[in-house]
Every structure is written in C-alpha cells, then in structure tokens.
Amino acid sequence: MPQSSPDGDVHPTEDASVPAATPLTAPREGVPPLATSAADVAEVARRLAGGTGPVAVDTERASGYRYSGRAYLVQLRRAGAGSALIDPTEAGPLDALAQVLNPLEWVLHSADQDLPCLAEIGLHPAALFDTELAGRVLNQGKVNLAAMVEREFGLLLAKQHGAADWSRRPLPADWLNYAALDVELLVEMRDSLSRQLHAQGKAEWARQEFEHVRTAPPPAPRPDRWRKTSGLHRVGGRRRLAAVRSLWTARDTLAESLDRAPGRVLPDSAIIEAALADPGTTHELRALAVFGGPRQRKRSALWLDALAEARGLPDSALPPKRPAGGIPPAGRWPAARPEAADRLAAARGAVAAIAEANDLPAENVLEPRVLRELCWGDGTGSAGVGAAADVSPESSEHIDALLHAAGAREWQCALTAEALAAAFRGHARA
C-alpha cells in the first residue's frame, strides 16, 4: 500500500508484493469550493502564494461538445496550499492568479493538451514537468494518468468523467470531486519520477522534452482539414471530393458560430452520403439518413447551397485526388520512391537498436515524423529540412543538422546522428 507520511503526503510503496489497488475516492482535504468570482480567485492566489514547491495544474475542456478548445475548469494544487478549482468562464480576468502561477514550475500530465487553453486565459509556466512525458522517457508502457497513479501509488483513479461536457452549468458535485483528484497526486508523482529519471541518467533528456513542449509555438492550422472526414476513402472523383469539401466548410463555419463540436452539427457519415448521392432538391436531400431529421430539415438550404457550389466549380478549381506536396504515407514509398523506403527501413533499424540499448520507446528516441522527413528526400535535406552545403550528405554532422532543423532535441541528435549516418552509408553501399 502507499505510505502516508506524518504530513499527510502519499509516497510510492517500495513493497513489490502490494495488494490490489485501493480506489482513490476523495481529495485529502475534501473537494475545494469552486472559485467563480474575482474575489474567489484572489483568495486562491493568496493561498497558492503561501505554498511551496511546484504547482500541479490540470484543465477540463468540452472538445466533444464545443467547437472551441477553451478551459471550462482549472484545477490546481500546491504543497502547503491545498487544492483549488476555478471556473474561468465565470471568474473574469485571472491576473491575480497569473502573478502567482506564472513564475512557478508546473506539473501537468500530457501538458501539450492543456497549455494552449491555459495560455488563452493568461497562464504560462516558467518551467514544466510533464508526468506523461517522464513516463515515456522511463519507458513505463502505459502512461495514462490512471495507470501511472496505480503503478506509483497503488491507488485506482477513476476516469469516468473525462469525456463529459464540462461546459455544463452547474457542474455536478461528483464531477468536481473527479476533477480535484486529477491533481491530488501530481506533485508526489513528479518527485517519484524525477528520482527515477536521475537514477537512470535520463533527467536531462526529460528536461529537454519538457522545455520543448513548454516553448512550442501554437500549431499552424492544418491545410485541407476537410480531408480528415471519416469515410473519405469511399468518395471517388474530384467533383465528389469538392462536394465533401464544400459541405465540410459549411459545417465548420456553422459549428464555429454555434460553438458546437462539428460532429454534433452534422456527422461525417452524413457528409459522405450527401457527396455520393449529390441531391439537387430538398426532397432528395431529406430522403437521406440524418438530413430528414428535425434539426437538419431546418438547415436544408445550407447543405443544398454547399452541394450546388461544388457542382458549379470549374474543373480547374476541383481538389486533387491526393493533397499536393508533403510526404506520402510510408506504405506508398516502395512504389513512389523505393530508395527512400530502403533508407527508412535502415533508419528504423538503427533507431530500434538505440531504443533497446537505452530502454526508451522508439518513438521517443526520434519522432516518426522527423524520421520520415529525413528519409524521404535524397539525403541532402530535400524533404523540407536543410543542412550545411559543405558537409557530406552521409556524415553525422550533416544528419545532425537535418535533425536539428526538423525539430529533434539535442539529446536525440546526440543519440542518433552517428548511427543514422552509418545506416545510410551502409544502405548506399548495399
């Protein structure tokens, strides 16, 4: 069982013969009151300022229900200050909280999911510890929060409300209890994982990973997002692809205006069926599944206009069957560029060996995207990354430059550049 110290903190057990995990049902000090006003936030900030050490941070969003990725709840916990729950939709500006939180180290689980919505409300960490990333660098296998809490502390963390509609008001009491538990043990987990990282000589690797996440710029909008429509493989011909694009765009515009998840405005399956059937009248449209329902009947004109727009496009404006540019899926490389497929196979072998030697997941030794970018070109950086022109394409210096340009961290470059260069030299001789 996890051991409790006199101060009430929970520490990982050292006993290898622990009994079945114990459910974690409530925070140690109970569920904190929900801060919904400027005065409430000022009190939370005052308490947190009196605490010590890093602060555990989490958010709850409503991505399956809302178009936006905003935070509908912020959970915090710091030693000596206890836990806090803040409703950022009601509390107004969080300047007082930012003054306390922003200079601190934050502990988050899967920080890249939470940092964007926290930045929207003025919260930015000065330093970061990501427990999920730490678990990956430690090669722990399952690194979801519940699995890690059970492994580290022998406690079961319920996850039944993770996909709930957190934009709902008022928030139910059991949801608030669940949310507070998400930060209950994050700082203790940070301390345990930090000790393990140092023991394995991986602390600096993890630090670079944390900093990479902390300083990452907002992701650029993906081009041709409509191509992610589920079932698109069923649509043949550029005119029908144009119909999918037009319906997707109409849906996206409406979803954003309603702040509703696009799939709740119109499911992908309905977009595909309409593109295939290409109805030209209200009667034909409403004969299709979904479009005959009461909500969609009111929007018939919107969907028919989108289909008519696609129908009227000149051939020159139709989308290509496949996206222009970019790197194709690796499965198509043997036919499209066999030498690149051979390079990728050699590179994957080298990375797998490095992963095994260093007890790391291969995808954390080097991101698959980086490896594909490195191998798709001709070895001189033509895949979209560059290197010094006076360096041999098969030298470790050249590979190191390519890796840095593709976003690999220093520790990853140091581990892989020479091995990849050797793999490419071996491939070239074969």
Please give a structural write-up:
By secondary structure, the protein is an alpha/beta fold. The chain folds into 3 domains: 3-215, Ribonuclease H-like superfamily/Ribonuclease H (Nucleotidyltransferase, domain 5), CATH 3.30.420.10; 225-317, HRDC domain (DNA polymerase, domain 1, Orthogonal Bundle); 330-429, HRDC domain (DNA polymerase, domain 1, Orthogonal Bundle), CATH 1.10.150.80. Helix content is 48%, strand content 10%. It has helices at 38-49, 95-101, 111-120, 131-137, 145-153, 173-181, 186-199, 203-215, 238-258, 262-265, 268-277, 282-286, 294-297, 300-311, 333-336, 338-358, 362-365, 368-376, 396-405, 410-429, and strands at residues 3-4, 10-11, 22-24, 34-35, 52-60, 73-79, 82-86, 105-108, 127-130, 155-157. Strands 4-7-6-5-8-9 form a 6-stranded mixed sheet. A two-stranded antiparallel sheet has the order 1-2. A two-stranded parallel ribbon has the order 3-10. Strand 6 and strand 7 (82-86) form a beta hairpin. Helix 4 (131-137) packs parallel to helix 7 (186-199) and helix 16 packs across helix 20 (410-429). The longest helix has 21 residues, at 238-258. It is flat. InterPro entries: 3'-5'_exonuclease_dom, Exo_C, HRDC-like_sf, HRDC_dom, HRDC_dom_sf, RNase_D-like, RNaseH-like_sf, RNaseH_sf.
Strand-residue fraction? 5-15%
Q: Supply the number of helical segments.
A: 20
CATH topology label of the largest domain: Nucleotidyltransferase, domain 5
CATH homology superfamily of the largest domain? Ribonuclease H-like superfamily/Ribonuclease H
Query: In whole angstroms, how far apart are the ends?
Result: 56 Å
Structural class, from secondary structure content? alpha/beta
Helix and strand pattern: EEEEHEEEHEHEHHEHHHHHHHHHHHHHHH
InterPro entries: 3'-5'_exonuclease_dom, Exo_C, HRDC-like_sf, HRDC_dom, HRDC_dom_sf, RNase_D-like, RNaseH-like_sf, RNaseH_sf
Organism: Tomitella fengzijianii
Region (Disordered): 1-32, 208-230
GO molecular function: 3'-5' exonuclease activity; nucleic acid binding; nucleotide binding
